Amino acid sequence: ILIGDSLGHVLLGHSSTAHVTMQDILRHVEAVRRGASNTFIIGDLPAGSYESPESAIENAQQIMKAGADAIKPEGKPEIIQILTDKNIPVMAHLGYLPQTAEKFVIVGRKKEEAANLLQQALLVQQAGAFAVVLECVPAPLAKNISQNLDIPTIGIGSGVDCDGQVLVLYDLLGLYTDFKPKFVRKYLDLADLVNKAVKNYVKDIKSLSFPAKNEEYE
């Protein structure tokens, strides 16, 4: 389970993941750990929490103490090296980087950009990352990167040839409706079901059919 800073969008109402704080991540890591005691959990390092080696180490250790088994920064092979040198397991994240991107983009369509992304993937592997998320990378490039790495690639919007896949749970369940990128497959439409349920609740209250006699205490 990845506790990602996308919680800023789907849970906290922020317009950008850059608004997510360490406290937000820590609270959610702790909650998920309580509900998934035997699951491998990864926590995002939020924006601004790993600008220096000192802050990266301190904040990564806090996330680990909160219950994570590993942490995930965006980009920065040099930070990954510093963390793995401290025996902190790191999943890397390359391609589209929401914390710093000015807009939603596909990364690696240009030849130079693709070569740079492959180089970055090799660098995070060399730095000690045990896996790498590839976000919004053209499928042929993601396949090439996957074939050139010894560590697993986890795709999100990067085609079927990554070693694994990840989706935001609220996207998968159809609970978050503000933005739906091409790569999201909704397996349920819970937003519609929730809206219908609340409307029926209001209707029953107005018609005095709720609560019914069998829902009252005597």
Give a structural overview:
By secondary structure, this protein is α/β, with parallel strands linked by helices. The chain contains eight helices and seven strands; from the N terminus they run E-H-H-E-H-E-H-E-H-E-H-E-E-H-H. The strands form two sheets. It has a four-stranded parallel β-sheet, covered by helices on one side. It has a three-stranded parallel β-sheet with strand order 1-2-3. The longest helix is centred in the C-terminal third of the chain and has 17 residues.
Can you give me a brief rundown of this structure?
The chain is α/β, with parallel strands linked by helices. The chain is built from 8 helices and 7 strands; from the N terminus they run βααβαβαβαβαββαα.
The SSE order reads EHHEHEHEHEHEEHH
Q: Proportion of β residues?
A: 5-15%
Secondary structural class = alpha/beta
Largest sheet: 4 strands, parallel
What is the distance, rounded to the nearest whole angstrom, between the alpha carbons of the first and last residues? Answer: 46 Å
Q: Provide the helix percentage.
A: 40-55%
The multimeric state of the shown protein is single chain
Q: Low-confidence segments, ≥5 residues, pLDDT <50?
A: none
Morphology? globular
Features of the shown structure:
four-stranded parallel beta sheet, 40% helix, 218 residues, alpha/beta, 11% strand
Question: How are the elements arranged and paired?
Answer:
Blueprint lengths: L1 E2 L3 H4 L11 H14 L6 E3 L8 H14 L3 E3 L4 H9 L5 E5 L15 H16 L4 E5 L3 H10 L4 E4 L7 E2 L3 H4 L17 H17 L12
Helix pairs in contact: 2-3, 4-5, 5-6
